Amino acid sequence: DQQVKQNSPSLSVQEGRISILNCDYTNSMFDYFLWYKKYPAEGPTFLISISSIKDKNEDGRFTVFLNKSAKHLSLHIVPSQPGDSAVYFCAARSDFGNEKLTFGTGTRLTIIP
Amino acid sequence: SAVISQKPSRDICQRGTSLTIQCQVDSQVTMMFWYRQQPGQSLTLIATANQGSEATYESGFVIDKFPISRPNLTFSTLTVSNLSPEDSSIYLCSVEDPRGSYEQYFGPGTRLTVT
Description:
The structure holds 2 protein chains of 2 kinds. By secondary structure, chain A is mainly β. Chain A has a single domain, classed as Immunoglobulins (Immunoglobulin-like). Chain A is built from no helices and 11 strands. In chain A, the strands form 2 sheets. In chain A, strands 2, 4, 5, 9, 10 and 11 form a 6-stranded mixed beta sheet that branches. Chain A has a 5-stranded antiparallel beta sheet with strand order 1-3-8-7-6, with no helix packed on it. The N and C termini of chain A lie far apart (38 Å). The mean pLDDT of chain A is 94. Chain B is an all-beta fold. Chain B has one domain: Immunoglobulin-like, CATH 2.60.40.10. In chain B, strands 2, 4, 5, 6, 9, 10 and 11 form a 7-stranded mixed beta sheet that branches. In chain B, strands 1-3-8-7 form a 4-stranded antiparallel beta sheet, with no helix packed on it. Chain B is globular, with a radius of gyration of 13 Å. Classes of the chains: A mainly beta, B mainly beta. At the A-B interface, β4, β5, β9 and β10 of A face β5, β9 and β10 of B.
């Protein structure tokens, strides 16, 4: 039972354009969402997060949008840079989950120079 | 953020043997987590390790197969026992943010190949 889904396994975007990565979840108890970036042979690196009481959080080139009614969140990267090429995971947390993070399957983002 | 190291970074093991993975953190943390990432898959939580208590295992993971030690607030080990090719994965430890946010910080991972 995949409670967090990233339906696009891969995405290619031209350098300088906007990258939009999507994530859907099914568990209505999730109240905190995170995005991680992973390079090969490295552990995931935290990027940005959002609480369920907000619908947007911005940090530099990264913005996360949350649509609770649709159980959907997205990560926008603008402008996209070659160093953004990586696998991106969304993750969700519930207050009743003992700090456990549930991860999506990941989206491989490739930025084309 | 916490700095986390893991040993070994990779290993190739024979079927039926065991591998112990070490995780060291540069600050004291209450909770440490062990994840598995099978090829092409998501990260799946194996267990949560609190210092001074037994680890809490997720559904599908048992202590006999994945014994965990947590002797102090900066160190933990995960052993993968009686290895089979299906155990070939990346194993990652993570820690909660020492500042108390909901973020988790991950080590670089251990890539295990079982032959």
